[in-house]
Amino acid sequence: MHVEMMRKGLVLDKYTYPLVLNACVQLRELRHGRSVHSHAIKTGFALDLYVMNNLIRLYGVCGCVGSVRKVFDRSPERDLVSWTTLIQGYVDNGHLKEGVELFFEMIEHGLRADERMMVVVISSCAKLGDLRLGQKLHKYVQGHKLNFDVFLGNALVDMYIKCGETDIALNVFREMPTRNVISWNTLISGLAQRREFKQALSAFNEMQDQGVKPDENTLVGVLNSCSNLGALEVGKWVHTYIDRNQIQVAGYVGNALVDMYAKSGSMDDALRVFGSMNTKDVYSYTSVIVGLATHGKARIALNFFYKMLAIGIQPNGVTFVGVLTACSHGGLVEEGHKLFADMWRVHKLTPQIEHYGCMVDLLSRAGLVDEAVEFVENMPIEPDASIWGSVLAACRIQGRVELAEHVTEKLVNIESEKDGTYILMSNTYASVSKWRDALKVRRAMKKRKIKKVPGCSSIELDGVVSEFRKGDKAHPRSKDIYATVEQLKLHSIGTEAFSNGNEPLIV
Q1: Would you give the distance in Å from CA 51 to the centre of its chain?
Q2: Facing residues of 466 across strands?
Q3: pLDDT in tens, 83-95
Q4: C-alpha to C-alpha distance for 407 and 66, rounded to whole angstroms
Q5: Could you tell me where the beta strands, DSSP code E, fall in 413-507?
Q6: Backbone torsion region of residue 44, taken as left when φ is above 0, otherwise alpha when ψ lies between -120 and 50, otherwise beta
Q7: pLDDT digit string, tens, across residues 53-97
Q8: Cα separation of 326 and 378, whole Å?
Q9: Where are the beta strands (DSSP E) in 331-463?
Q10: 3 state DSSP class of 69
Q11: What pTM, to 2 d.p., does this model score?
Q12: CA atoms within 13 Å, Cβ hemisphere of 320
Protein backbone atom coordinates (compact mmCIF):
# COMPACT_ATOMS: atom_id res chain seq x y z
CA MET A 1 0.00 0.00 0.00
CA HIS A 2 2.83 2.36 0.91
CA VAL A 3 4.59 1.66 -2.40
CA GLU A 4 1.36 2.31 -4.30
CA MET A 5 0.87 5.63 -2.46
CA MET A 6 4.40 6.66 -3.39
CA ARG A 7 3.80 5.83 -7.04
CA LYS A 8 0.68 7.98 -7.04
CA GLY A 9 2.59 10.85 -5.49
CA LEU A 10 0.53 10.85 -2.30
CA VAL A 11 2.25 12.41 0.72
CA LEU A 12 2.44 10.51 4.03
CA ASP A 13 1.78 12.37 7.26
CA LYS A 14 2.39 11.74 10.96
CA TYR A 15 -0.67 9.49 11.08
CA THR A 16 0.27 7.40 8.04
CA TYR A 17 3.93 6.78 8.88
CA PRO A 18 3.17 4.88 12.12
CA LEU A 19 0.74 2.61 10.23
CA VAL A 20 3.30 1.79 7.56
CA LEU A 21 6.06 1.26 10.13
CA ASN A 22 3.79 -1.01 12.17
CA ALA A 23 3.26 -3.14 9.05
CA CYS A 24 7.04 -3.35 8.64
CA VAL A 25 7.30 -4.50 12.26
CA GLN A 26 4.73 -7.25 11.74
CA LEU A 27 6.51 -8.48 8.61
CA ARG A 28 10.04 -7.92 9.99
CA GLU A 29 10.67 -5.80 6.86
CA LEU A 30 13.86 -4.02 7.87
CA ARG A 31 14.84 -3.00 4.35
CA HIS A 32 11.47 -1.42 3.58
CA GLY A 33 11.42 0.10 7.06
CA ARG A 34 14.75 1.84 6.42
CA SER A 35 13.29 3.21 3.18
CA VAL A 36 10.30 4.60 5.10
CA HIS A 37 12.70 6.10 7.66
CA SER A 38 14.68 7.85 4.89
CA HIS A 39 11.44 9.19 3.40
CA ALA A 40 10.32 10.42 6.85
CA ILE A 41 13.61 12.31 7.26
CA LYS A 42 13.12 14.02 3.88
CA THR A 43 9.56 15.03 4.68
CA GLY A 44 10.45 16.22 8.20
CA PHE A 45 8.32 13.68 10.08
CA ALA A 46 11.22 11.57 11.45
CA LEU A 47 11.32 13.74 14.59
CA ASP A 48 7.61 13.38 15.28
CA LEU A 49 7.13 11.56 18.61
CA TYR A 50 4.74 8.88 17.29
CA VAL A 51 6.81 8.23 14.17
CA MET A 52 9.98 8.07 16.24
CA ASN A 53 8.45 5.56 18.71
CA ASN A 54 7.49 3.27 15.82
CA LEU A 55 10.96 3.56 14.30
CA ILE A 56 12.52 2.50 17.64
CA ARG A 57 10.16 -0.46 17.76
CA LEU A 58 11.00 -1.46 14.18
CA TYR A 59 14.75 -1.43 14.76
CA GLY A 60 14.37 -3.27 18.08
CA VAL A 61 12.27 -6.04 16.56
CA CYS A 62 14.76 -6.40 13.69
CA GLY A 63 17.72 -6.65 16.10
CA CYS A 64 19.37 -3.32 15.24
CA VAL A 65 20.16 -2.09 18.76
CA GLY A 66 22.58 0.56 17.48
CA SER A 67 19.86 2.09 15.31
CA VAL A 68 17.42 1.93 18.22
CA ARG A 69 19.68 4.13 20.33
CA LYS A 70 20.47 6.53 17.46
CA VAL A 71 16.79 7.22 16.75
CA PHE A 72 16.09 7.67 20.46
CA ASP A 73 19.04 10.04 21.01
CA ARG A 74 18.11 12.23 18.03
CA SER A 75 14.54 12.72 19.20
CA PRO A 76 13.77 16.17 20.66
CA GLU A 77 10.81 14.74 22.60
CA ARG A 78 10.44 11.47 24.51
CA ASP A 79 7.58 10.00 26.49
CA LEU A 80 7.08 6.84 28.55
CA VAL A 81 6.35 4.85 25.38
CA SER A 82 9.71 5.97 23.95
CA TRP A 83 11.61 4.76 26.99
CA THR A 84 9.63 1.50 27.22
CA THR A 85 10.23 0.73 23.53
CA LEU A 86 13.93 1.58 23.92
CA ILE A 87 14.34 -0.69 26.95
CA GLN A 88 12.32 -3.47 25.29
CA GLY A 89 14.59 -3.25 22.25
CA TYR A 90 17.69 -3.74 24.40
CA VAL A 91 16.18 -6.54 26.49
CA ASP A 92 14.75 -8.49 23.54
CA ASN A 93 18.19 -8.52 21.93
CA GLY A 94 19.95 -9.90 24.98
CA HIS A 95 21.29 -6.62 26.41
CA LEU A 96 19.59 -7.21 29.76
CA LYS A 97 21.91 -5.27 32.04
CA GLU A 98 21.93 -2.26 29.72
CA GLY A 99 18.13 -2.38 29.57
CA VAL A 100 17.84 -2.20 33.37
CA GLU A 101 20.40 0.63 33.48
CA LEU A 102 18.26 2.58 30.98
CA PHE A 103 15.31 2.18 33.36
CA PHE A 104 17.20 3.97 36.13
CA GLU A 105 18.34 6.60 33.62
CA MET A 106 14.68 7.22 32.81
CA ILE A 107 13.86 7.59 36.52
CA GLU A 108 16.59 10.22 36.82
CA HIS A 109 14.85 12.16 34.03
CA GLY A 110 11.78 12.39 36.25
CA LEU A 111 9.50 9.92 34.46
CA ARG A 112 7.36 7.44 36.41
CA ALA A 113 7.29 3.84 35.18
CA ASP A 114 4.02 2.03 34.55
CA GLU A 115 3.12 -1.64 34.98
CA ARG A 116 4.15 -2.60 31.46
CA MET A 117 7.66 -1.21 31.86
CA MET A 118 8.08 -2.86 35.26
CA VAL A 119 7.23 -6.24 33.74
CA VAL A 120 10.01 -5.73 31.17
CA VAL A 121 12.72 -4.75 33.68
CA ILE A 122 11.71 -7.29 36.35
CA SER A 123 11.79 -10.05 33.71
CA SER A 124 15.32 -8.88 32.83
CA CYS A 125 16.36 -9.25 36.47
CA ALA A 126 14.92 -12.78 36.43
CA LYS A 127 17.13 -13.71 33.48
CA LEU A 128 20.13 -12.03 35.08
CA GLY A 129 19.47 -13.76 38.40
CA ASP A 130 20.08 -10.43 40.16
CA LEU A 131 18.09 -10.66 43.39
CA ARG A 132 19.28 -7.33 44.85
CA LEU A 133 18.18 -5.46 41.74
CA GLY A 134 14.91 -7.39 41.60
CA GLN A 135 14.08 -6.46 45.19
CA LYS A 136 14.84 -2.82 44.42
CA LEU A 137 12.35 -2.93 41.54
CA HIS A 138 9.77 -4.66 43.76
CA LYS A 139 10.11 -1.81 46.26
CA TYR A 140 9.58 0.67 43.41
CA VAL A 141 6.30 -1.10 42.53
CA GLN A 142 5.15 -0.95 46.15
CA GLY A 143 6.38 2.60 46.78
CA HIS A 144 4.62 4.02 43.71
CA LYS A 145 1.47 1.94 44.35
CA LEU A 146 1.41 0.50 40.85
CA ASN A 147 -1.51 -1.74 39.94
CA PHE A 148 -0.54 -5.22 41.10
CA ASP A 149 -2.05 -6.93 38.06
CA VAL A 150 -1.56 -10.52 36.92
CA PHE A 151 1.28 -9.64 34.51
CA LEU A 152 3.29 -7.82 37.16
CA GLY A 153 2.60 -10.56 39.70
CA ASN A 154 3.75 -13.26 37.26
CA ALA A 155 6.97 -11.35 36.55
CA LEU A 156 7.74 -10.99 40.27
CA VAL A 157 7.06 -14.67 41.01
CA ASP A 158 9.30 -15.69 38.10
CA MET A 159 12.06 -13.32 39.22
CA TYR A 160 12.11 -14.52 42.84
CA ILE A 161 12.09 -18.20 41.85
CA LYS A 162 14.92 -17.77 39.35
CA CYS A 163 16.90 -15.89 41.99
CA GLY A 164 16.46 -18.82 44.39
CA GLU A 165 13.94 -17.17 46.75
CA THR A 166 11.10 -19.68 46.50
CA ASP A 167 9.53 -18.66 49.83
CA ILE A 168 9.25 -15.01 48.75
CA ALA A 169 7.91 -16.15 45.36
CA LEU A 170 5.19 -18.15 47.12
CA ASN A 171 4.30 -15.13 49.29
CA VAL A 172 3.99 -12.90 46.20
CA PHE A 173 1.89 -15.58 44.52
CA ARG A 174 -0.48 -15.75 47.50
CA GLU A 175 -0.82 -11.93 47.52
CA MET A 176 -1.81 -11.72 43.85
CA PRO A 177 -5.42 -10.51 43.63
CA THR A 178 -5.95 -12.41 40.39
CA ARG A 179 -4.11 -15.39 38.92
CA ASN A 180 -4.32 -17.12 35.56
CA VAL A 181 -2.96 -20.38 34.20
CA ILE A 182 0.33 -18.61 33.36
CA SER A 183 0.66 -17.68 37.04
CA TRP A 184 0.36 -21.34 38.05
CA ASN A 185 2.71 -22.43 35.25
CA THR A 186 5.31 -19.88 36.37
CA LEU A 187 5.14 -21.25 39.91
CA ILE A 188 5.04 -24.97 39.04
CA SER A 189 7.72 -24.86 36.33
CA GLY A 190 9.89 -22.53 38.40
CA LEU A 191 9.74 -24.83 41.43
CA ALA A 192 10.55 -27.82 39.23
CA GLN A 193 13.56 -26.00 37.76
CA ARG A 194 14.77 -25.24 41.29
CA ARG A 195 14.38 -28.98 42.05
CA GLU A 196 11.59 -28.25 44.53
CA PHE A 197 9.61 -31.12 43.04
CA LYS A 198 7.36 -31.87 46.01
CA GLN A 199 6.36 -28.22 46.26
CA ALA A 200 5.66 -28.18 42.52
CA LEU A 201 3.26 -31.12 42.84
CA SER A 202 1.67 -29.51 45.89
CA ALA A 203 1.06 -26.35 43.85
CA PHE A 204 -0.46 -28.46 41.07
CA ASN A 205 -2.86 -30.08 43.56
CA GLU A 206 -3.86 -26.63 44.82
CA MET A 207 -4.37 -25.48 41.22
CA GLN A 208 -6.79 -28.36 40.68
CA ASP A 209 -8.63 -27.59 43.94
CA GLN A 210 -9.20 -24.03 42.71
CA GLY A 211 -10.65 -25.28 39.42
CA VAL A 212 -7.94 -23.84 37.15
CA LYS A 213 -7.62 -25.93 34.00
CA PRO A 214 -3.99 -26.89 33.29
CA ASP A 215 -2.53 -26.44 29.82
CA GLU A 216 0.35 -28.22 28.09
CA ASN A 217 2.99 -26.13 29.88
CA THR A 218 1.50 -27.07 33.25
CA LEU A 219 1.56 -30.75 32.39
CA VAL A 220 5.20 -30.62 31.27
CA GLY A 221 6.21 -29.03 34.60
CA VAL A 222 4.22 -31.61 36.58
CA LEU A 223 5.61 -34.55 34.57
CA ASN A 224 9.13 -33.23 35.09
CA SER A 225 8.51 -33.24 38.85
CA CYS A 226 7.05 -36.75 38.69
CA SER A 227 10.14 -37.92 36.78
CA ASN A 228 12.51 -36.70 39.45
CA LEU A 229 10.43 -37.95 42.38
CA GLY A 230 9.48 -41.26 40.82
CA ALA A 231 5.83 -40.32 41.40
CA LEU A 232 4.46 -42.82 38.89
CA GLU A 233 0.83 -42.69 40.05
CA VAL A 234 0.63 -38.89 39.64
CA GLY A 235 2.33 -39.23 36.26
CA LYS A 236 -0.24 -41.83 35.17
CA TRP A 237 -3.04 -39.50 36.29
CA VAL A 238 -1.56 -36.76 34.08
CA HIS A 239 -1.37 -39.23 31.18
CA THR A 240 -5.04 -40.09 31.69
CA TYR A 241 -5.88 -36.37 31.77
CA ILE A 242 -4.00 -35.90 28.49
CA ASP A 243 -5.95 -38.72 26.83
CA ARG A 244 -9.30 -37.60 28.26
CA ASN A 245 -8.81 -34.04 27.01
CA GLN A 246 -7.49 -35.23 23.64
CA ILE A 247 -4.20 -33.38 24.03
CA GLN A 248 -1.79 -34.48 21.34
CA VAL A 249 1.02 -36.63 22.68
CA ALA A 250 3.82 -34.91 20.80
CA GLY A 251 6.52 -32.30 21.31
CA TYR A 252 7.20 -31.26 24.89
CA VAL A 253 4.25 -33.20 26.33
CA GLY A 254 5.18 -36.46 24.58
CA ASN A 255 8.83 -36.12 25.54
CA ALA A 256 7.92 -35.36 29.15
CA LEU A 257 5.70 -38.46 29.30
CA VAL A 258 8.43 -40.70 27.89
CA ASP A 259 10.94 -39.25 30.34
CA MET A 260 8.56 -39.65 33.29
CA TYR A 261 7.83 -43.32 32.57
CA ALA A 262 11.51 -44.08 31.89
CA LYS A 263 12.73 -42.45 35.12
CA SER A 264 9.89 -44.02 37.13
CA GLY A 265 10.98 -47.51 36.08
CA SER A 266 8.14 -48.22 33.65
CA MET A 267 10.05 -48.66 30.37
CA ASP A 268 7.20 -50.57 28.70
CA ASP A 269 4.93 -47.54 29.13
CA ALA A 270 7.73 -45.22 27.99
CA LEU A 271 8.16 -47.24 24.79
CA ARG A 272 4.39 -47.32 24.21
CA VAL A 273 4.17 -43.53 24.44
CA PHE A 274 7.25 -43.19 22.22
CA GLY A 275 5.69 -45.49 19.61
CA SER A 276 2.43 -43.49 19.61
CA MET A 277 4.17 -40.19 18.86
CA ASN A 278 3.71 -39.04 15.25
CA THR A 279 6.76 -36.80 15.36
CA LYS A 280 9.92 -37.56 17.31
CA ASP A 281 12.97 -35.38 17.87
CA VAL A 282 16.36 -35.78 19.52
CA TYR A 283 14.79 -35.30 22.97
CA SER A 284 12.30 -38.13 22.38
CA TYR A 285 15.05 -40.54 21.35
CA THR A 286 17.39 -39.36 24.09
CA SER A 287 14.78 -40.02 26.81
CA VAL A 288 14.30 -43.58 25.54
CA ILE A 289 18.03 -44.22 25.14
CA VAL A 290 18.87 -42.92 28.64
CA GLY A 291 15.96 -44.88 30.13
CA LEU A 292 16.97 -48.15 28.47
CA ALA A 293 20.62 -47.60 29.42
CA THR A 294 19.68 -47.01 33.06
CA HIS A 295 17.61 -50.20 33.05
CA GLY A 296 20.54 -52.22 31.71
CA LYS A 297 19.06 -52.70 28.22
CA ALA A 298 22.34 -51.76 26.56
CA ARG A 299 21.90 -53.31 23.12
CA ILE A 300 18.30 -52.08 22.73
CA ALA A 301 19.42 -48.56 23.71
CA LEU A 302 22.14 -48.62 21.06
CA ASN A 303 19.66 -49.90 18.45
CA PHE A 304 17.50 -46.82 19.12
CA PHE A 305 20.59 -44.64 18.76
CA TYR A 306 21.53 -46.13 15.39
CA LYS A 307 17.93 -45.85 14.21
CA MET A 308 17.92 -42.18 15.19
CA LEU A 309 21.05 -41.58 13.13
CA ALA A 310 19.57 -43.50 10.18
CA ILE A 311 16.54 -41.19 9.95
CA GLY A 312 18.73 -38.08 10.11
CA ILE A 313 18.26 -36.90 13.72
CA GLN A 314 21.52 -35.53 15.11
CA PRO A 315 22.39 -36.54 18.69
CA ASN A 316 23.28 -34.04 21.39
CA GLY A 317 25.52 -34.25 24.44
CA VAL A 318 22.84 -35.86 26.62
CA THR A 319 22.23 -38.53 23.96
CA PHE A 320 25.88 -39.53 24.21
CA VAL A 321 25.67 -39.71 28.00
CA GLY A 322 22.91 -42.28 27.49
CA VAL A 323 24.81 -44.15 24.78
CA LEU A 324 28.05 -44.34 26.78
CA THR A 325 26.11 -45.34 29.90
CA ALA A 326 24.57 -48.18 27.89
CA CYS A 327 28.04 -49.33 26.83
CA SER A 328 29.19 -49.14 30.46
CA HIS A 329 26.28 -51.20 31.78
CA GLY A 330 26.61 -53.68 28.92
CA GLY A 331 30.38 -54.07 29.16
CA LEU A 332 30.75 -52.94 25.53
CA VAL A 333 34.28 -51.56 25.76
CA GLU A 334 35.23 -51.48 22.07
CA GLU A 335 31.90 -49.99 21.02
CA GLY A 336 32.17 -47.41 23.79
CA HIS A 337 35.61 -46.33 22.55
CA LYS A 338 34.30 -46.02 19.00
CA LEU A 339 31.22 -44.01 19.99
CA PHE A 340 33.29 -41.70 22.19
CA ALA A 341 35.57 -41.00 19.21
CA ASP A 342 32.57 -40.55 16.85
CA MET A 343 31.16 -37.98 19.22
CA TRP A 344 33.76 -35.38 18.27
CA ARG A 345 35.05 -36.77 14.97
CA VAL A 346 31.69 -37.39 13.28
CA HIS A 347 29.14 -35.35 15.23
CA LYS A 348 31.42 -32.40 16.15
CA LEU A 349 30.39 -32.50 19.81
CA THR A 350 33.05 -31.59 22.37
CA PRO A 351 33.10 -34.18 25.18
CA GLN A 352 32.27 -32.76 28.60
CA ILE A 353 33.17 -34.04 32.06
CA GLU A 354 30.06 -36.28 32.04
CA HIS A 355 31.23 -38.09 28.89
CA TYR A 356 34.73 -38.64 30.27
CA GLY A 357 33.09 -39.93 33.44
CA CYS A 358 31.09 -42.46 31.43
CA MET A 359 34.26 -43.72 29.73
CA VAL A 360 36.09 -44.10 33.04
CA ASP A 361 33.06 -45.92 34.46
CA LEU A 362 33.01 -48.19 31.38
CA LEU A 363 36.68 -49.15 31.77
CA SER A 364 36.40 -49.49 35.56
CA ARG A 365 33.33 -51.75 35.38
CA ALA A 366 35.11 -53.90 32.80
CA GLY A 367 37.99 -54.41 35.25
CA LEU A 368 40.42 -52.39 33.12
CA VAL A 369 41.63 -50.32 36.06
CA ASP A 370 45.07 -49.45 34.68
CA GLU A 371 43.53 -48.35 31.37
CA ALA A 372 41.00 -46.26 33.30
CA VAL A 373 43.78 -44.50 35.23
CA GLU A 374 45.72 -43.87 32.01
CA PHE A 375 42.55 -42.45 30.43
CA VAL A 376 42.01 -40.11 33.39
CA GLU A 377 45.60 -38.89 33.39
CA ASN A 378 45.38 -38.04 29.65
CA MET A 379 42.08 -36.16 29.92
CA PRO A 380 42.22 -32.60 28.50
CA ILE A 381 40.06 -31.36 31.40
CA GLU A 382 40.55 -31.71 35.14
CA PRO A 383 38.91 -34.91 36.44
CA ASP A 384 36.32 -34.42 39.17
CA ALA A 385 35.50 -36.46 42.25
CA SER A 386 32.98 -38.72 40.50
CA ILE A 387 35.60 -39.82 37.94
CA TRP A 388 38.21 -40.70 40.56
CA GLY A 389 35.40 -42.28 42.59
CA SER A 390 34.69 -44.71 39.74
CA VAL A 391 38.36 -45.72 39.70
CA LEU A 392 38.41 -46.15 43.49
CA ALA A 393 35.31 -48.35 43.38
CA ALA A 394 37.00 -50.52 40.74
CA CYS A 395 40.12 -50.73 42.93
CA ARG A 396 38.00 -52.12 45.76
CA ILE A 397 36.49 -54.80 43.51
CA GLN A 398 39.90 -55.73 42.08
CA GLY A 399 41.67 -55.54 45.45
CA ARG A 400 44.17 -52.95 44.13
CA VAL A 401 45.15 -51.46 47.48
CA GLU A 402 48.21 -49.44 46.44
CA LEU A 403 46.40 -47.84 43.51
CA ALA A 404 43.39 -47.19 45.76
CA GLU A 405 45.65 -45.31 48.20
CA HIS A 406 46.99 -43.18 45.33
CA VAL A 407 43.45 -42.40 44.11
CA THR A 408 42.26 -41.65 47.65
CA GLU A 409 44.93 -38.96 48.00
CA LYS A 410 43.60 -37.26 44.87
CA LEU A 411 39.99 -37.55 46.06
CA VAL A 412 40.76 -36.11 49.49
CA ASN A 413 42.39 -33.11 47.81
CA ILE A 414 39.24 -32.54 45.73
CA GLU A 415 36.60 -33.06 48.44
CA SER A 416 38.10 -33.64 51.87
CA GLU A 417 34.79 -33.39 53.73
CA LYS A 418 32.82 -36.05 51.82
CA ASP A 419 32.29 -39.46 53.41
CA GLY A 420 32.30 -41.59 50.24
CA THR A 421 36.07 -41.58 49.70
CA TYR A 422 36.87 -42.75 53.23
CA ILE A 423 34.19 -45.45 53.20
CA LEU A 424 35.38 -46.82 49.84
CA MET A 425 39.02 -46.87 51.02
CA SER A 426 38.04 -48.53 54.29
CA ASN A 427 36.07 -51.17 52.37
CA THR A 428 39.04 -51.70 50.04
CA TYR A 429 41.28 -52.50 52.98
CA ALA A 430 38.59 -54.77 54.41
CA SER A 431 38.26 -56.64 51.10
CA VAL A 432 41.88 -57.82 51.44
CA SER A 433 41.58 -58.37 55.23
CA LYS A 434 43.67 -55.32 56.18
CA TRP A 435 41.48 -54.66 59.18
CA ARG A 436 43.88 -52.33 61.01
CA ASP A 437 44.14 -50.06 57.98
CA ALA A 438 40.36 -50.12 57.56
CA LEU A 439 39.94 -49.11 61.19
CA LYS A 440 42.56 -46.37 60.78
CA VAL A 441 40.50 -44.83 57.94
CA ARG A 442 37.36 -44.94 60.08
CA ARG A 443 39.23 -43.22 62.91
CA ALA A 444 40.43 -40.53 60.50
CA MET A 445 36.77 -39.92 59.57
CA LYS A 446 35.86 -39.58 63.23
CA LYS A 447 38.79 -37.25 63.91
CA ARG A 448 37.76 -34.98 61.03
CA LYS A 449 34.13 -35.19 62.20
CA ILE A 450 33.03 -36.64 58.88
CA LYS A 451 29.76 -38.47 59.23
CA LYS A 452 28.36 -41.03 56.85
CA VAL A 453 25.44 -39.58 54.93
CA PRO A 454 22.37 -41.72 55.72
CA GLY A 455 20.68 -43.53 52.87
CA CYS A 456 17.42 -42.11 51.57
CA SER A 457 14.44 -43.91 50.07
CA SER A 458 11.04 -42.74 48.92
CA ILE A 459 7.63 -44.30 48.48
CA GLU A 460 4.53 -43.07 46.69
CA LEU A 461 1.10 -43.74 48.19
CA ASP A 462 -2.15 -42.25 46.90
CA GLY A 463 -0.21 -39.71 44.82
CA VAL A 464 1.85 -38.49 47.80
CA VAL A 465 5.62 -39.08 47.82
CA SER A 466 7.21 -39.57 51.25
CA GLU A 467 10.99 -39.63 51.83
CA PHE A 468 12.71 -41.60 54.58
CA ARG A 469 16.28 -41.59 55.92
CA LYS A 470 17.97 -43.94 58.35
CA GLY A 471 16.85 -43.07 61.87
CA ASP A 472 14.55 -40.34 60.53
CA LYS A 473 11.59 -39.41 62.72
CA ALA A 474 10.48 -36.30 60.83
CA HIS A 475 7.50 -37.97 59.14
CA PRO A 476 4.21 -36.97 60.85
CA ARG A 477 3.29 -40.65 61.28
CA SER A 478 6.75 -41.86 62.28
CA LYS A 479 5.47 -43.46 65.52
CA ASP A 480 2.93 -45.56 63.59
CA ILE A 481 5.58 -46.51 61.03
CA TYR A 482 8.09 -47.66 63.64
CA ALA A 483 5.37 -49.54 65.53
CA THR A 484 4.41 -51.37 62.33
CA VAL A 485 8.06 -52.22 61.62
CA GLU A 486 8.38 -53.72 65.11
CA GLN A 487 5.23 -55.79 64.54
CA LEU A 488 6.66 -57.04 61.24
CA LYS A 489 9.93 -57.97 62.97
CA LEU A 490 8.08 -59.96 65.64
CA HIS A 491 5.90 -61.61 63.00
CA SER A 492 9.01 -62.53 61.03
CA ILE A 493 10.64 -64.08 64.12
CA GLY A 494 7.45 -65.97 64.93
CA THR A 495 7.11 -67.29 61.40
CA GLU A 496 10.75 -68.45 61.41
CA ALA A 497 10.29 -70.20 64.75
CA PHE A 498 7.10 -71.92 63.52
CA SER A 499 8.86 -73.12 60.36
CA ASN A 500 11.52 -74.74 62.61
CA GLY A 501 8.87 -76.72 64.46
CA ASN A 502 8.58 -74.35 67.42
CA GLU A 503 5.53 -72.54 68.70
CA PRO A 504 5.07 -69.15 66.98
CA LEU A 505 5.81 -66.09 69.11
CA ILE A 506 3.07 -64.10 67.41
CA VAL A 507 0.03 -65.31 65.52
Answers
A1: 42
A2: 459
A3: 999 999 999 999 9
A4: 55
A5: 456-461, 464-469
A6: left
A7: 999 998 998 989 999 999 898 888 889 999 999 999 999 999 999
A8: 23
A9: 456-461
A10: helix
A11: 0.74
A12: 28
